[in-house]
Amino acid sequence: MSAALSNDAATQLKALYAEMQPQSLYPLWEVLSALVTPTPRSPAQVHRWTYADARDYLLRAGDLITAAQAERRVLIMENPGLPGTSCATSSLYAGLQLILPGEIAPCHRHAQCALRFVMEGEGAFTAVDGEKAVMRPFDLVLTPGWQWHDHGNTSAQPMIWLDGLDIPTVMHFDASFAEHWPESAHPETVPPGDTTLRYGRNMRPMRGTASDRRPGAQPLFHYPYSEWRESLENLAQSGDPDPHFGHALEFTNPAHGGAVMPTISAHVRLLPAGFTSRPRLSTDGTVFVVVEGKGVARVGGKEITLQERDTLVVPSWRELVFQADTELVLFGYSDRVAQEKLGLFREHRS
Ligand code: GTQ
Question: How far, in Å, CA of 30 to CA of 218, rounded?
Fold first, then answer.
């Protein structure tokens, strides 16, 4: 409210509010400025999780509960500004999942889209609709909405990856569905790598053939580190860095060339040693993982040091600057694609 009310009107309004409240009616003019803000005011905070600390707790949990008992043995990285919500940003979730040798995290499917970004371990897999993606550190693996997935570890080491899901987005729309497969693992449908050979070579099976097995709109689900790192290196060797992103590549869905999933965009960036990015704000709160190197993130006046495998969350509309002390390679995911579809995405570059 702007202009002042008389004492009498104010008193009578208070009485009116008290009368309306049992019928779930409230005056907009008391809350309008908090609802329709001139710029985003995320309650989320900038926060960094140190990998060594989180890993230690996760391994201790691994001594106490099996993957089968937990269904998913995951430590949620909850934003300290969003307590009790299991949210990393207002629209996205982040967690660290552990699969020990010999374990299977049982097969299920859900409306929520998920990505996995491998932190450590080698040789464990996520099976998507019965096709194994055998994972190595810093591989990106997708489990798009409603595709069956189980995780297994036939290697001799623990396997830890970051889970990025659109859980808060699905919750926002009250659109969650989930089912369990009757067995712990989905039967193997095709050998590992089949999808990459069908859809990862700028080709696709011709329509109407029995070989069009994967969902045509969402075929590819494994983006190996060895491939994206080589592409990023080539980009870095062959041109100047973008002043705000450094050298950056977005992961795409080959079916349409857009973001990897309907609600989640993902990218990698390389900042050369000594590079400091120009300040940028954007409406897509972003979760970053440090893949290589050391540096500093300056977010709205806060300085956060970054080391390998740390996870950093930067909320919507906070000025962000990265400073690379050594060559710094980052993975990041956000809801940018969802906001673009809704006509909400904005950024400001200075
Ligand atoms: O692996 O399917 O971190 O369903 C949270 C929910 C992982 C999964 C999470 C899930 C999963």
Answer: 46
Question: Tell me, what CATH number does 126's domain have?
Answer: 2.60.120.10
User: Does 82 fall in a domain?
Assistant: yes
For the stretch 58-104, pLDDT in tens is 999 999 999 999 999 999 999 999 999 999 999 999 999 999 999 99
Atom of ligand 1 nearest to the CA of 149: 2
Output the CA 248–ligand 1 centroid distance in Å.
27
Structural domain containing residue 335: 47-349
Ligand 1: which of 85, 86, 97 to mutate, most ligand atoms within 8 Å of CB? Answer: 97
Residue 32 corresponds to which amino acid? L
User: How much is the average pLDDT of 201-207?
Assistant: 87
Is the distance from CB of 329 to CB of 268 less than 8 angstroms?
yes
At 193-203, the pLDDT tens digits run 999 999 999 99
Residue 10 within a domain:
no
Ligand 1 atom closest to 105 (CA): 1
Specify the DSSP element, H or E, that contains 171: helix 167-172
* Total of domains in the chain: 1
pLDDT, one tens digit per residue, over 286-322 is 999 999 999 999 998 899 999 999 999 999 999 999 9
Query: 311: helix, coil or strand?
Result: strand
What phi and psi, each to the nearest 5 degrees, are found at residue 61?
-60, -35
Residue 167 forms part of a structural domain? yes
Q: Does a structural domain hold residue 25?
A: no
